[in-house]
Amino acid sequence: MGANLLVLGGTTEATALARALAERSVQATFSYAGRVETPRPQPIPHRVGGFGGVDGLATYLSDHNITHVIDATHPFAAQMSWNAFHACRQTGTPLLALTRAPWGAQTGDNWRHVPDMTGAVAALDGSAQRVMLALGRLHMDAFAAQPQHHYVLRLVDAPKIAPAVPHHTVVVARGPFSVVGDTALFKQHNIDMVVCKNAGGAGAEAKLHAARALGLPVVMIDRPDLPTRDNVATVEGVFDWLEGN
Ligand code: NAP
Q: What are phi and psi of 9, to 5 degrees?
């Protein structure tokens, strides 16, 4: 029996992998959580929605004769990564993570590291500023606890329910973003400060270059704990790993 992969997606890297799998005619299914209204089309079959925890995923792997799982989720999608880790262990399915290295501060950067979203909210306890919140829909409401700021919210879809932060501007856009574009955006909105997650990778890095160029402080949310598993940083690395597993 040939390989039959499950790719846990939602990232630029997962999309690049799907393209490479299609080009090489490797059988694979792409899995979306279903967070955005119109997921990016993929050149391989896709499914949408949660599996139902560890047991649901383990059942899915067995029912669909999945031979390998590639966890190409966002590094902050820790729940999915832990579920994949346990479900693969339960079913004996080889698991590989396709992840990007975290970003590191460079000369000229002014980063304040915080361990999580709660820490980011607490870090904003000062006087009113114009804050670029590059965090996604799920986390922005937590910042209602610091209502003094004007928040610029960059979201993939226009929100159906008004954000809980009282002063805000919504910018609907989907990455990858450019340094020129992000610099212009920060200037246009008179941004004083950027809040973001340490996603790593190229697709969302532009905002850090823009912040450096404009001398803006960045509240950098460090990564959550992730399981220890085989790990590669490139699509080519996935194919090398498949040969040995
Ligand atoms: P999460 O908290 O780790 O996952 C919560 C639940 O959503 C999981 O337990 C699972 O439900 C379902 N889920 C997550 N990813 C899935 C996938 N690829 N396919 C099927 N079900 C999935 O995840 P999250 O942080 O909400 O992220 C959701 C998706 O958005 C991920 O695919 C991720 O790659 C992408 N994304 C996340 C971020 C971020 O900052 N977190 C940024 C960009 C993109 P069940 O337990 O029912 O299986």
A: -110, -155
CATH of domain 4-100+225-243: 3.40.50.720
CA distance 2 to 100: 28
Distances in Å between the Cα of 163 and the Cα atoms of 68, 139, 168 are 39, 10, 8
Determine whether the shortest distance from the Cβ of 155 to ligand 1 is under 6 A: no
pLDDT at 85: 98
Question: What are the tokens at 29?
Answer: 């299914």
Mean pLDDT of 218-244: 97
> What's the alpha-carbon Rg for the chain, to the nearest Å?
19
Q: Could you tell me how far CA 23 lies from the centroid of its own chain?
A: 25
pTM of the predicted model over 0.90 = no
135-182 pLDDT tens trace: 988 889 999 999 999 999 999 899 999 999 999 999 999 888 999 999
Cβ(33) – ligand 1 distance below 6 Å: yes
What is the CATH code of the structural domain delimited by 111-221?
3.40.50.720
